[in-house]
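Re: the request from the purification team.
They wanted to know what the chain is likely to look like in 3D before they choose a buffer screen. I agreed to run a prediction and write the result into the notebook, where they can find it.
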Amino acid sequence: MEIITVQEAEHIIFSQIQDFGTEEIPYDQSLGKVLAEDLIADRDLPPFDRPTVDGIAIDFEAYHEGIHTFTIKATQAAGELPAAITHNKECIEIMTGAAVDHSVNTVIRYEDLSIENGIATIQDIEIKKGQNIHLKGKDKKKDDLLVRANQIITPSIIGVAASIGKTKVLVKKLPRVVLISTGDEMVSPETEPTPFQLRRSNSITIKTVLAKYSINAETIHLNDDFEIIRNELKRCLSEYDILLISGGVSMGKFDYIPKVLEELRVDKLFHKIKQRPGKPFWFGKSLDQKLIFAFPGNPVSVFMCLHRYFIPWLEQSLEIEETSPQYAVLQNDIHFPYLLQYFAQVKLNINKTGQLTATSIDTNGSGDFSHLSETNAFIELPLEQDIFKKGEVYKVWKYNF
């Protein structure tokens, strides 16, 4: 199979969108999950007329007739039965959020009153009928849509669910994901490496990114041993929906991943993309529809391929509402004289006119991960060009947000 373009790779990956089903879970355990149902108002919101300030409630017609002094008939707190007046010279002392009786229709705040011996006098201010009252159903009516499905559940959405008594919500099931790193030279972050070893970071980085989607991925590290890799990949294909592999996919003598997957009868959908970083990216599907995203081992390659391909695939599979592609104005010239599509690390900002801008950072290739913490996006530069000018606009793929 020939090396393919970024657009061809995207098309192949998006042709493998999967549905993992739904499940009902307690609303207070749903943060970060994808909502799989609309949330509907179970009654009018607010469910009754209520004051927005502390003060007194009166019948506006009395004030209109020139009455400015009222006898306080009752004091009403939030949650109590609404108190009524029987004469227009009476008022109800009422607290914010209490239910307003139909016998009163206007609320005057304490700051605009003087109260003495059970008598409330309105100061010399202008009063409008209906002021300081949040009317029943003003926000939403019963059976109105409150939250549309296919959104990542936020604290505010959980608050809406609680307010309508939705103690269990329907959410999208998540794929079972395993993160597999490879390489004899890679040791755990807790280990003191020799001068010729490196600490593992790819699986930790990917796991952290996936946590945003409430995916708690398993992590495995495999040394460069063909049989060990074969046995572990066979096991993982039986236990997980998605395998995310870093390392072992290039042309080296110990890059066993493609050969092992071939032996395990995994269908290779592509291997190698006309891009930098991440050219050796391998993608395939098992006989029972398990997907394998096998990224090159360099940290920047992993990070780019994850955000450019896997995360968009995941969001489409979970039917998360799509956002429009984002574009940024390049702030400096870039020269890239290779027949590859270039993903440059950039720092995004907003200029004084509200435009999204991107300033590229000089790096030392896909193994130089030191700049990932000071940048926040890759800018995607077209394959057909090799010179990219300040002021030109290109698509960006965000991270670190």
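For the purification team: The chain has a mean pLDDT of 93.
Please add any questions underneath this entry.
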